[in-house]
Design brief:
Elements lengths: L1 H13 L12 E4 L1 H7 L1 H38 L5 H54 L3 E4 L11 H9 L13 H11 L27
Parallel strand pairs: 1-2
Helix pairs in contact: 1-2, 1-4, 2-6, 3-4, 4-6
């Protein structure tokens, strides 16, 4: 989850495009990955998403176990081909459909919440960057991330990582990363999990309407 949040922000940052520079243009740089990592909101959201995924996993496992028990009882207690066997098998099919519905819909909710969280973090970063740039008289602020210490697993991953580097060199005195981090965390007020739409406790999946028994 941490990798997904920070990678998503890196991709967003890569979309920043600099205008042609004039001789008197003042430029700053921000390490977006470092800002995201040290922003308390990112850590809180990661914790909330981890807890949500764990809860959903437990619910999914409980539903699977219920289906497994029903299937074992079906084979042990009833004779195939009988009316009671057919009706019991229909009930199990409804349980399996409910499980599939639960996995798909709750998974979509998590993905949607993750996307909204990524956007909110990036919006916060942009607001603070703008304010700090205005305070320091900067006309342009570039996203400048360092290459990770770990080597990528494949050539394609290495190529992608390199291509995401938009600034190859900058003097330390133009780096406003720490100032952005300080400003973000100073104004951040944690919200309860219930206040975040992405981390609401999922409602129980509605049971499919049962067909009337003949």
């Amino acid at each position: 989850m941490k990798l997904r949040i920070r990678l998503g922000l890196a991709v967003m940052a890569a979309a920043w495009v600099a205008s042609p520079l004039c001789a008197d243009t003042k430029v700053g740089v921000v390490n977006v990955a470092a800002v995201s990592e040290k922003y308390q909101k990112t850590r809180d959201l990661e914790t909330q998403f981890d807890a949500l995924r764990k809860s959903l996993g437990q619910q999914r496992d409980a539903m699977k176990e219920k289906i497994d028990r029903a299937n074992r009882a079906l084979q042990e207690e009833l004779k195939p081909g009988t009316e009671e066997f057919r009706l019991r098998r229909k009930d199990i099919a409804l349980m399996e459909a409910e499980l599939q519905w639960f996995v798909e819909t709750e998974g979509q909710k998590v993905e949607k919440g993750l996307g909204e969280s990524l956007r909110s973090i990036f919006d916060d970063i942009q607001v603070c960057v703008k304010e700090l740039a205005q305070e320091q008289g900067l006309q342009i602020v570039l996203a400048a991330d360092n290459l990770p210490a770990e080597s990528p697993d494949t050539p394609n991953q290495a190529r992608q990582t390199i291509l995401l580097q938009k600034v190859l060199y900058w003097k330390p005195d133009v780096d406003i990363t720490e100032g952005v981090i300080a400003k973000l965390n100073q104004r951040y007020k944690p919200s309860t999990p219930a206040a975040a739409g992405a981390t609401d406790k999922p409602k129980a999946a509605p049971k499919p309407a049962e067909a009337k028994k003949p």
